[in-house]
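Sample A.
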Amino acid sequence: MAVCTPVSRAQLEPWLDRYDCGRLLALEGIPSGIENSNFFVDTERGRFVLTLFERLAFEQLPYYLGLMKHLAARGVPCPDPIADRDGATLGRLNDKPAALVTRLSGRSDMHPQAPHCAAVGGLLARMHLAAADYPGRLPNQRGLPWWVETTPRVLPFLRPDAAALLRDEIAVQQRFAARPDHAALPASAVHADLFRDNVLFDGTRLGGVIDFYFAGHDTWLFDLAVTCNDWCIDDATGAFVPERLDAMLGAYLAVRPLEPAERHAWPLMLRAAALRFWLSRLF
């Protein structure tokens, strides 16, 4: 999407008056992004990112901003929403919900190696532990109910073999989710979209995690599976690269060892994570 809703200096300057950020020095649209309009904002007192939300409703956003605030307060390197003088982290600009957050250093590395995967694995485990007491509650908006709802809408466009595979996998995941051991898996607010483009690096030094706007309540194991399925595969074949997978899982487990039920559920959770993003690409 890049920048869908433009913002000029003349529009932003009076909006920034609500914040203790000082005078606006620079405003630059961010070309990447598919869900929101984002801008780099430099002021006399810091560097920030301004987001105008193009699809999410105003009422949904306090959950996501609250989660980032919660994690940042616990030492997780993620954007920290900035409150205005009235204590609000969410406002409106150009008829869109808008928020200002701290800007992290680094850039995405789309060709990660084992050290990158280890850094992400350790950070993900710390994020899960830090989110355990987050009081906000919002179901994963791309979880099983969405899979079941979306499947009939994409089936007519699939080859018979792909359609059969999708039907079978939905049935498998419905049975999996109904099992008592699935209900007992550790869960909290999770990122749910921790792909390579949502982590910033400076070399192999991790700068932080961005884009929490697909977050929701789900199992920690699902979040780990989503992350492994992106960071640890060979792009040409889709197969896991052992060195990267071992690095990510080793770093994660060093912070938070898996429970026996999680180890048992791991193969099906990898399939669940793959299904979620297969469906979103089809849709």
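Sample B, a different protein:
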Amino acid sequence: MESLTKTQIVLLVLLVSFVTSLATGIVTVTLVNQAPQPITHTISKVVEKMVPKEVLVKEKTVIFSSEENLVKIIKEASLAVVGVMVGTTKDLTATTTNEEIRKKLTPSGSGFFVSKDGIVLTNKHIVGDETLEYVVITSDGKTYPAAVISRSSSQDVAVLKVEGNNFNFIPLGNSKNINVGQTAIALGSDSGEFQNTVSVGVVSGLNKTAAALNSFSGLEDLVALIQIDAAANPGNSGGPLVDLSGRAIGINTVGAPRENIGFALPINLAQKDIADAFKQIKN
């Protein structure tokens, strides 16, 4: 070493430094390649999994299960609702148009089938004139003569009979099980427009009393009524009040549109009239 010149010593130091630096670089690259991925990359992967990528979805109407059930009940119950008209069917044919029907028949109210063999429930005041004849128009636009089987002496209830069978009908519920706050659906037939009307609300009162104008007997008080917070549409009288099981729990009878309330007779009040009608038909 003593024989080395100053220049050679400097070159040797530089060479050792270069070799050392090169070796350090190689070791560092090797360690990085073999080491786990950086923590920031790991975090980004976790975030990526938590936040899903944007997915293109075709636009469609979303109906919640409760709403879907309500729509189904209304659709099925509407098939059993009829328009009650004053008149006869002798001048009506299969080709008679709605406009011609309007000229020949007078809208009176609504009703609904309670059996597949043609028993129709309605209000007494709708068919109160015993000198007139009545016709019902079903949801599919067909017309049938309707015989008045009974008019209740104590309630605004009447039972009609339509000849035929396999009619869509609404099963009867139990009005004793009605609770304030439950959903109620009032259906009817807007006879002037030949289409069903629907009001959905909640039962807001029980055992109510309301005055109804009967065109045949004048003003009369109706008692034990179901009150709902939905105004009765024109023509709803005589139509069914239905619960969320699709059963008739009442018969729409009177409404107060300005107060946005309607009233219905509990279906249990019509049970005897319906039973008597079945007995009469069988005999």
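Observation for Sample B: The chain has one domain: 78-282.
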